[in-house]
Q: What sequence folds into this?
């Protein structure tokens, strides 16, 4: 079943068309990576998918449920009650973590499941401890975000997103605020999640990582999908723009 | 020795006004901190008429003397509505005037505090399903309170000194009694005693805010 379907998404800021007719599908258990040069609209696409931004036109469906639907050349969003339910299907990991600084690590992870999802405290804490263990942070539960390294903070923010039990998890350049060592830490965790068949959409500049972890890759430029497909297909593409992009990255 | 007994005597007489000085102080803090938050939210409202009205209110309250505002609150009911002013209304007028005035200052402090929180905090909260109310009171406000402690402390220290403006309506607080004593005794000493009183009062206020700041320093 397709977990996420976006069809003919259009989005502009003032007189800048940022997304020009983007369509994509993410199936259960699949990892989709989105790559492309700076300013191509990757973050905007994620922000539209996670409804931090409103689309101008197009359809967004999660689990077959309509979040937004194109009607007369304009996107109509679902009723608040439906949107609230749909919101529970996805999580987002930010580039700069956005942890809550006044909450301890454990509280960061457990507060939303308890306060928002009204789940039992004991159960949520148990799950949070298990998640921290998985992230290699079992002794950091009582620490505050400022006491953690960037990599540790990002792991907490991944745990925070996972604690909500999302069906699909979005990552917007989860490692670009980190130095190489810490980057490897985070990529390893995302790889582990992929091995567990977590459905994920990842915007990244880490080409080797995208190649290894993804089932499907989208290359975006100036608001359009220039090329997409399985990793091998993309990395062996003869598309001139893609070759230039890879060339720039490897400094050729 | 004689000097000290005299000062102690003056202190005892002035101290009859301390209750009212403290009442003005605590009542103003309580009401203006609540009112100020509401005012700040109005000021930041996306609904233009509300935000403009709040802006005008704040501008007037900060741009005119508190002493004048106290007189307006006191005499307003008579001159505008023809209501007879009673003696007991004096203190009420002071309390109302102070709350209305300080709310404007606190509103601007709240606003600066709220606007200093990064949009990422709101976005993270939204993604985790917090509603607007939960986001504001559980995620945003606790961080705002920590950040605004220094300016609120400043304003509170000013308030301690401003309570003396209640003499305008001859409410029997510390400064009013002091002035009466000065004329009765034809001596400066009551002023010195009052000065010591306000200074110690503010020392306690400053210590309290230092403590509060330390208490909030468990995170950054
Ligand atoms: N809120 C906004 N208002 C106006 N313009 C915006 C806004 N957000 C993004 N843009 C513009 O939209 C374009 C796409 O931005 P976006 O952040 O989606 O790119 P990106 O592919 O994520 O780039 P990067 O790799 O640098 O993160 C850019 O030109 C950007 O300046
Ligand atoms: Mg981006």
A:
């Amino acid at each position: 079943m397709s977990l996420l379907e976006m069809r003919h998404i259009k989005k502009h800021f003032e007189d800048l068309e940022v997304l020009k007719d983007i369509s994509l599908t993410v199936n259960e258990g699949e990892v989709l990576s989105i790559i492309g040069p700076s300013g191509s609209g990757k973050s905007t696409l994620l922000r539209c998918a996670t409804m931090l931004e409103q689309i101008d036109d197009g359809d967004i469906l999660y689990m077959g449920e309509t979040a937004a639907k194109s009607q007369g050349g304009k996107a109509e969003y679902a009723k608040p009650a439906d949107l609230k339910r749909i919101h529970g299907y996805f999580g987002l990991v930010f580039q700069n973590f956005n942890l809550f600084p006044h909450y301890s690590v454990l509280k960061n992870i457990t507060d939303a499941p308890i306060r928002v999802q009204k789940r039992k405290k004991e159960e949520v804490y148990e799950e949070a401890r298990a998640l921290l263990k998985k992230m290699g942070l079992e002794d950091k539960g009582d620490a505050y975000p400022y006491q953690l390294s960037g990599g540790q903070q990002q792991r907490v923010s991944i745990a925070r997103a996972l604690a909500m039990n999302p069906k699909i998890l979005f990552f917007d350049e989860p490692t670009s605020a980190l130095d190489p060592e810490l980057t490897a830490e985070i990529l390893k965790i995302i790889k582990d999640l992929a091995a567990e068949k977590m459905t994920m959409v990842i915007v990244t500049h880490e080409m080797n990582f995208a190649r290894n972890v993804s089932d499907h890759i989208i290359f975006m430029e100036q608001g359009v999908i220039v090329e997409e497909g399985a990793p091998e297909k993309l990395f062996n593409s003869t598309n001139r723009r893609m070759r230039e992009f890879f060339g720039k990255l490897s400094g050729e | 020795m004689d000097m000290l007994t005299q000062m102690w005597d003056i202190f005892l007489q002035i101290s009859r006004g301390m209750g009212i000085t403290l009442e003005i102080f605590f009542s103003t803090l309580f009401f203006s901190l609540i009112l100020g938050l509401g005012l700040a939210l109005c000021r930041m409202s996306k609904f233009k008429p509300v935000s403009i009205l709040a802006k005008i209110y704040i501008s007037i309250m900060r741009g005119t003397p508190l002493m004048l505002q106290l007189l307006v609150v006191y005499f307003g009911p008579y001159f505008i509505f023809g209501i007879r002013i009673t003696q007991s209304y004096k203190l009420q007028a002071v309390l109302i005037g102070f709350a209305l005035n300080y709310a404007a200052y606190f509103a601007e402090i709240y606003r600066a505090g709220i606007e200093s929180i990064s949009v990422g905090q709101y976005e993270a909260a939204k993604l985790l399903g917090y509603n607007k109310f939960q986001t504001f009171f559980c995620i945003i406000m606790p961080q705002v309170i920590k950040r605004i402690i220094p300016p609120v402390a400043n304003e509170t220290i000013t308030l301690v000194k401003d309570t003396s403006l209640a003499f305008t309506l001859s409410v029997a607080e510390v400064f009013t009694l002091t002035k009466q004593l000065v004329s009765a005794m034809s001596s400066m000493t009551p002023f010195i005693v009052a000065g010591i009183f306000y200074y110690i009062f503010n020392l306690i206020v400053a210590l309290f805010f230092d403590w509060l700041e330390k208490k909030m320093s468990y995170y950054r």
